[in-house]
Predict the structure.
Amino acid sequence: MNFFAIIGRVVLALLAEIGRLSQFTWTSVSHIFRPPFFWVLLGQQMIRIGYFSLPVVALTAFFTGGALALQIYYGGNTINSENIVATIVALGITRELGPVIGGLMVAGRVSAAIAAELGTMRVTEQIDALTTLSTNPYKYLVVPRIAAAVITLPILILVADILGVMGGFVVGSTSLHFNPGVYIQNTVNFLKMEDVTSGLIKSGVFGFIIALMGCFHGFHSKGGAQGVGRATTNAVVTASILILASNYVMTSLLFTK
């Protein structure tokens, strides 16, 4: 009976956490469309989330495109299919690797930072002070971060797509000795607009997940410095898992005919 009691406690705790997350998500989303709007805070968060994440996303995408080109070439070389390198690099980067890897990199940087910032504010009672001053903490703290992440992630992923394809082109034209003109022509011929837009749709959802997980775990952190550390870790882990899970769901919806 103790075994079943343990299972019951785990299930109840999981359901309670899902309920808290659902309530937090609904409250946060509903406040996005209600005045007042803190435009200055939104601009600040767009710079922190988008602009400061650009170097790590750009470097990751560039080297991912280059490594993908090498792997496709050496794998396709056994069946004389080197000509498909440009096509697969472009499709792989725009559809999957650009949004997913970019989202994971931003999750590791942004979600942790948001959770640490809000967690510190929670344990030092700054969030309670905002409520005392008649300032809605959702409007002031949560909404600008979620909105900024949803706006800036597609822009970051668009840059990642360009640099990822460029990385494949640089490796293909230098290390693999492809004709640069033929490589570019193959990329243009097989890459469609829906391949790019599908990745941008995914990135918008990933941005929402990243900011939501950071805000949720930071907003509900407790237990001093150790609680802030747990909130930071949980934010990154849950954001990464949800990015991968939602990517599968969206891929099934967008590309299944």
User: Anything to note?
Assistant: Residues 38-252 form one domain.
